[in-house]
Amino acid sequence: MLRPTTHRDLRVELFGQTFESPLLIAPVGVQTIFHPDKETGVAEIAREIGVPYILSTAASSSIEEVAEANGDGARWFQLYWPQDNEITKSLLRRAKTNGYKVLIITLDTWALAWRPADLDNAYIPFASGIGDQTGFSDPVFRSKFASKHDNKTPEDDVFLASREWEADVFSGAAHTWEDLELIKAEWDGPIVLKGIQHVEDARKAVEVGMQGIVVSNHGGRQLDGAIGSLEVLPEIVEAVGDKLTVLFDSGVRTGVDVIKALCLGAKGVLIGRFVNPTSGGFWGKLMGCRPWVYGLGIAGKFGARDVLRGILAVSVGLVYIHETKAYYDQDLDQSMGLAGIKTIADCNPSMVRRVQYGGDTISSH
User: Who has greater pLDDT, 115 or 84?
Assistant: First the structure.
């Protein structure tokens, strides 16, 4: 307490570029199911509020369309790694040509997990071409598809094209550490591995020359019983935090969640679609869950913008000026001030405590 925290500085440097906050828009696929504004709309508001946009391979907008919507904003590309090397190279070329600066490779989804809720609801959007736009717009995939199927285009037979695209991207065949040499040869920017949950994998990422990792359990959707990402974050940071950039993902709902991850060593935090089922009411659910996907579903790109502003510090409240930008005191920014934290660099392990509650321990009775 009694620290000069009236005005906070949320700026961070990631991969040689300075950003106004440590928040990153996580790669979320198939955004058209939430609202017609989809990826292009969210990429547009990402530029407006100064948050890097990470495009998912499982997108309903093309690499080129998102780049155009994002304009001079910061954008990264998330790769669901195909088995076909020529298609992989084509995706990376398109991303580089269209201004995506950082490559994030998701390691934990080379096959889709057993997801009973999706099965119960027959939720398979890819089968009807929804979320396949990255592949359907790829010249190499289109050429290979045409050569196999009497010059058909994906639009001529969406179901067949969807099966072929998904069979390549979610093939059920795992890549290896050695396969990263292909990626390194094709991508001259930072490479970040997403889905790291074990210290030895983090050390291996350093060994093979990666520039960053994302500590993530895919929001709990990929492996039942997987450890919570926050549980393993401190030991991973201790092992490799001085050798590469450690980012954090999974379960982040509020600005205080962001602070916890930063205090435990993350340099940036991905915000996606985690829901808080305990929050009440229509708008209570939106503001309780925070993540921008729910804002997108309710009010399109402007809903996503307002949720992100709420987490960041840019919604309603007390205005102050910092280097010609007007910010509004809320959530991450306000919580930092109340916790006695002035800058992101001041987020450190001394600011958090692990508290064991009664339900966290196993009774001996």
Answer: 84
